[in-house]
Specification:
Elements: E1 2-7, E2 10-15, H1 26-38, E3 44-49, E4 53-55, H2 63-66, H3 71-81, E5 85-90, E6 93-95, H4 99-104, E7 107-110, E8 115-117, H5 120-123, H6 131-139, H7 141-148, E9 154-155, H8 156-162, E10 167-168, H9 172-179, H10 181-184, H11 188-197
Length: about 200
Amino acid sequence: MIRTQRDGDLAIITLDRPDKANALTAAMLTDLVAAVHDAGKAKAVILTGAGRVFSAGADLQDVAVLKTSPLWENLSSAIAALPGLTIAALNGTLAGGACGMALACDLRVAAPAAKVFYPVMRLGVLPQPSDPARLIALAGLSRARLILLAGAKLTAAEALACGLIDRIADDPVAEARMLATDALAADLDHIGAIKALLT
C-alpha cells in the first residue's frame, strides 16, 4: 500500500490505498518510514496519494494503537532529516495524523479541491510533538490555534493565503516535479547545505 517510484535522482512515494482514502495503518506507517529512509540519497522526494484524497489520517481500525504511536513522529522526523528537497503533492484532502508528513516537507503543493484539517481537539488526542511548531512556522500562531483548537477545515485557497501550502495546481505531482528541477540538477550536498541555512 506504499509504492515507491524512482526516476533517476527523484523518488516518488505514493500512499496507495484509495478505496480507504489512504487511511494509514501501523503497517503502512512502518513501510513509509522505511521508504523515506530508502530515499535518503535522492535529490528530491515527492510524497503523494492515489485517488482523490491524500490521506484521511489514521485508519479507524488501528486508531487505538496509533493515537499514541511513535511511528507518526518517526515518519515526520525521517522526512525532515532528508538532505534532498522534499515536496508534499497533495492530490486531495490532508487530514489528521497525515498532516505531520506534509508539515515536515520543504514544500507543499495542493489540488484546488484539497482541504486541510487536524481534528485533535474533537478526537481527544494530542498532535504529533513536532507538528505545532512546524504549523506555527508555516501558517502563524493564529492559524495554528484555529486548526488545532477550533478544528477549522481550511480550503486550499485559505491554506495558500496563510502559507500552509506553497502552490495550488491541477496536477500537484507535475507541479512538484517542476519545482524539483533545480534541485535535481544540483549536488545533494549543496541541497542539504542550503536547507541547513533555512532552519
